[in-house]
Amino acid sequence: MAFDSTFKAIDNTLWHDDGCSTAMDYVEQSSWVLFLKYFDDLEKNREQAAMLEGKTYERIIDGEYRWNKWAMPLNEKGEYDISKALVGDDLTEFVNQKLFPYLQGFKEKYEQNTIEYKVGVIYTEIRNRISSGYNLRDVIEKVDDLKFQTATDRHEMTQIYEDRLHQMGNAGRNGGQYYTPRPLIRTIVKSVNPQVGETVYDGACGSAGFLCEAYTYMHGKPGLTSSEEETLQTSTFYGKELKGLAYIIAMMNMILHGVQSPNIIRMNTLAENIANIQPSEQKKVILANPPFGGKERDEVQNNFPLRSGETAYMFMQHFIKMLKPGGRAGIVIKNTFLSNGDATALRRKLLEECNLHTVLDLPSGVFTGAGVKTVVLFFTKGEPTQKIWYYQLDKHFTKTAALTEDDLADFLALQKTKADSENSWTLDVSTLGVDYDLSVKNPNKQEEVDERTPTEIAESILALNSENQALIDEIMEMVK
What we know:
Blueprint: H1 2-15, H2 23-52, H3 67-71, H4 88-104, H5 106-109, H6 115-125, H7 133-144, H8 151-172, H9 182-192, E1 200-202, H10 209-219, H11 226-234, E2 237-241, H12 244-257, E3 263-266, E4 283-288, H13 298-301, H14 311-322, E5 323-334, H15 344-353, E6 354-362, E7 374-381, E8 387-392, H16 409-415, E9 424-428, H17 454-479
Parallel strand pairs: 1-2, 1-4, 2-3, 4-5, 6-8
Antiparallel strand pairs: 5-7, 6-7, 8-9
Helix pairs in contact: 1-2, 1-7, 2-7, 2-12, 4-6, 4-7, 6-12, 9-10, 10-12
């Protein structure tokens, strides 16, 4: 695909730049250039639409800061005029001293709910780190080849962009933060089934994968009205993110997916005392994969009635409080939550205040390279849990054989009726003990027991070692 080959060529250019050294750098630096090209194409479409209606469209990014002025200047025939193109030190000086300050000014000039303000936020938080103006020129020319006029173009671009975020997530994970595979996110979204008119929230949004996929799902509703489109654009999706780069990528990712003014705030979600959350702040749908294993100060832990040093447990309390009565949630969490003694009180709270109707058990390979087992908790707020339906995804995944949506199709089909199968069963909450242990124990599968004696096992190992040595000797003989 054109987008794929172009991004690979851009990465190769940035690999040779002194200011970029990691996959995170490549995504960050190509993103701010890509965003300006995408935004320019968006404004061209708006201009054309206005002309058809006999109206005039006033550009947001105008004058010498338009893409076809500083990045790819055109001649009278509308062709790229390389003789007018800034390059080397002239280009980096313009970008650093004029373009970025100009875009940063949008933050002070426009209201917070506008796309102009969001552009100002993006270019206030991000910096040009491409040190060579020649490399930057090469990146600009490659990005200019990308077109975003059609829905097909935009869909292909967002798919490739998500792949790049995947690479960035795997390269820069820390504190229990891992990129959530898109097939898993799409399945969670389908299961929770957010509807136009409902608010969707992720308090640990990362690159906004859940919010982007929820938008795509909801926007795909047949016969969407202009009023519903306006609702999706302005008052549906809400997110919070602490880390600077993830916050900026989330903003750009949502805009690239079609949400022109994302409601994403940069803040430490856990720093807010949940006792202060008002009903007006609560959301109807929560979709999230909160970080686990992080460290928070005592004063942050004091924001939660159930104190814990585990960030995921604090986030769970936050999500329960942020969910409207009758609201629905799909939360990814480490599977130790189901049995850990430190989470007993939290499990009790979840079961008493919410209907935890489904637990999806995932194998460790779902999160590539993480080696961690997770579950997805699906619950509705406002009624206690009586029965929990479990589904165990019993497959092996690797980096080269990753999770797909087809792998989760059986889960979605069976979940509709909560049917029992080889991989699914129901737990009656009334049978739980005081520890509220929700561990995944599939009653429909018999664990294979090795009935060999220790002597037989030892003999089998020795035989295998002998066979391996014989094979090595044979190969060495052939090499001589």
